[in-house]
Specification:
Length: 277
């Protein structure tokens, strides 16, 4: 019947900017290092490594003189270390993540507690917690929210890529736990639009394809959202991962979306595979 591609699919503003700026820097600089993989997508990582951009886990491992801070951002300790090492730093922290850092740092200035809704091991969360000047907690689901101690006051903020419903579901529990709760919805616009559109699309098609790196947490979240609405949802990194007979485009409708770290060429490849019949 039809193949529908989400309008808000693939690289978000923050990731696109980070990839383009890092590539631009590689025109004039050698041995550029990124603190952690620039994007959670193996195809992009391979292309970046071909032009001399490699990931390291800490500033002390940077082989050359130039280092890129990816869109996920880092904590102040990493900036200090880069400064001490005298490295040239290209800071490509996404403006939405920077805003989150500022909110958290300002609120916790006097040692007040921060509760961050997100995945404790996600690089954006790890970096953000570095800006907290007092006690902090991370909360990933309702059970973790219920397990928090009672508090007099705290700030609740969210990882920028948390699905909006998750934040909305957790917030009432936090309001019960904290007498004076300041809530800051810091989910970025790109995430809200992508999730919203994916939900509408998943509800209107027979099968869904979510394109993106298997290690990308925002792609996984997108997949889980679509799967909860359209049981025939598949997560693929590339067109070759689509099993033969996944869907019959002559009799079925197929929706396609992609995570924020998925490059245009991967999305195009999947769309071409589904439409070239
Ligand atoms: Fe920035 Fe949002 Fe993209 Fe994260 S998902 S890099 S916060 S635009």
């Amino acid at each position: 019947m039809s193949v529908q591609v989400a309008r808000h699919a693939g690289f978000c503003m923050g990731v696109r900017r980070a990839v383009l700026e890092a590539m631009k820097a590689a025109d004039t600089e050698k041995d550029i290092a990124t603190i952690g993989e620039l994007v959670h997508n193996p195809e992009v990582i391979r292309k970046l490594s071909e032009i001399g951009i490699h990931a390291v886990t800490s500033p002390s491992e940077v082989p050359g003189r130039t280092v890129v801070i990816r869109s996920h951002g880092v904590g102040p300790d990493v900036y200090r270390e880069l400064d001490t090492l005298g490295l040239k730093t290209i800071d490509l922290t996404c403006p939405y993540v920077q805003k989150l850092h500022t909110i958290v740092a300002r609120y916790s200035e006097t040692g007040r507690t921060v509760i961050l809704v997100g995945s404790a091991d996600h690089p954006e969360v790890v970096g953000t917690l570095g800006w907290c000047k007092g006690r902090f907690y991370t909360v990933h689901d309702l059970a973790q929210a219920e397990a928090l101690p009672e508090m007099d006051e705290a700030l609740a903020a969210s990882q920028t890529t948390v699905p909006h419903e998750e934040w909305e579901a957790i917030l009432p529990v936090l309001r019960r736990k904290v007498r004076q709760l300041t809530a800051e919805d810091t989910i970025c616009t790109a995430t809200v639009l992508r999730q919203k559109e994916a939900r509408t699309l998943a509800a209107s098609v027979d099968a869904m394809l979510v394109v993106g790196g298997l290690d990308s947490s925002n792609t996984r979240r997108l997949y889980e959202t679509c799967k909860s609405i359209c049981p025939r949802t598949l997560l693929v990194e590339r067109a070759a991962d689509i099993p033969p007979g996944f869907a019959d485009i002559h009799s079925e409708s197929i929706g396609i979306t992609a995570g924020a770290s998925t490059p245009d060429w991967s999305l195009k490849e999947v769309v071409t595979r589904m439409t070239d019949k």
